[in-house]
Amino acid sequence: MREIKINSNEEGQRLDRFLKKYLNKANQSFIYKMIRKKNIKLNGQKAEPETVLKKEDTVQLFLADDTIEKFREKKYLKHTDIHFDTVYEDENILVVNKPVGLSTQPDETSEKNLVDEIKMYLDAKEENISFTFKPAVCNRLDKNTSGLVIAAKNYNALKQTNKAIRERIIKKYYVAKVHGIIRQDLELRDFIVKNENKNMVKIIKENTAESMVGAKEVITYAHPLRTEGNFTWLEIEIETGRAHQIRAHLSSIGNPVAGDKKYGKNDREKHQVLHAYRLVLGGYEGELEYLNGLEIKSEISERRLI
């Protein structure tokens, strides 16, 4: 018999879904059968598959160790170098400075990605220990955009951070160098449509039925900091967090980001000059309330290349 004690990473999910992650090679019918036959119990009692797990619950598996291991696929992380810098870290969240050239999520275009590097980093510190939860990033940056990314170390932090981002409570600020001279604050409110085949987006300014198919609202604020020749340095705040939002929005008004090969103009910059430099956290409750109002910064001077 094996007993599993539910911790804060596992609580809040249904028993059957927890078991499907823990016995990740078992099919659903096997799991339901084991629950029905009382080979799997919750707190020593017969349980229902839809029962929501609570912290300190215990799940008993009345199965042979060989059977349990047969249904558990052990996944080993491929060793990777760590390319990010740690900007802030505590027991719940990790905020890192992602370099230019590193994908946030695993994809087919690159062997290196931030998610795997964070898992490797926490594994080395023995902080990546959970039955079913793996550390996850909460906000994404384009591969060639540098700057601050929040990673959650546990389920509660992930749930609350994602909610705060979704409800636009966490404020995200960027610094960008753009073509042209901008002297006044900008408030850009339009719509965006993504072309999945080309991995590009298009800004739509006219609200017509034909153009609005699949369109989502985008809101971008920009404040000029200084000029540099025929370029302007901007501080940018995004109220919505769409893919390529800043780059496409600024390009749509004739001020593309310097170095942007997809939405920009030819210039001397080898990489797009766009850096997520400041986060102001908020929207946290309970044991995470201490994060409210926390400001985390990574200046453009700290922008790195992979």
Description of the molecule:
This protein is an alpha+beta fold. It is 18% helix and 28% strand. The protein has helices spanning 15-22, 28-36, 65-70, 114-124, 155-166, 245-252, and strands at 2-5, 40-42, 58-61, 85-89, 93-98, 136-137, 146-152, 171-179, 186-195, 200-204, 216-228, 231-238, 274-280, 295-297. The strands form two sheets. Strands 4, 5, 6, 7, 8, 9, 10, 11, 12, 13 and 14 form an eleven-stranded mixed β-sheet that branches. It has a three-stranded antiparallel β-sheet with strand order 1-3-2. Strand 11 and strand 12 (231-238) form a beta hairpin. The termini are far apart. The relative contact order is 0.13.
How is the secondary structure organized here?
Blueprint: E1 2-5, H1 15-22, H2 28-36, E2 40-42, E3 58-61, H3 65-70, E4 85-89, E5 93-98, H4 114-124, E6 136-137, E7 146-152, H5 155-166, E8 171-179, E9 186-195, E10 200-204, E11 216-228, E12 231-238, H6 245-252, E13 274-280, E14 295-297
Parallel strand pairs: 7-13
Antiparallel strand pairs: 1-3, 2-3, 4-5, 5-7, 6-7, 8-12, 8-13, 9-10, 9-11, 11-12, 13-14
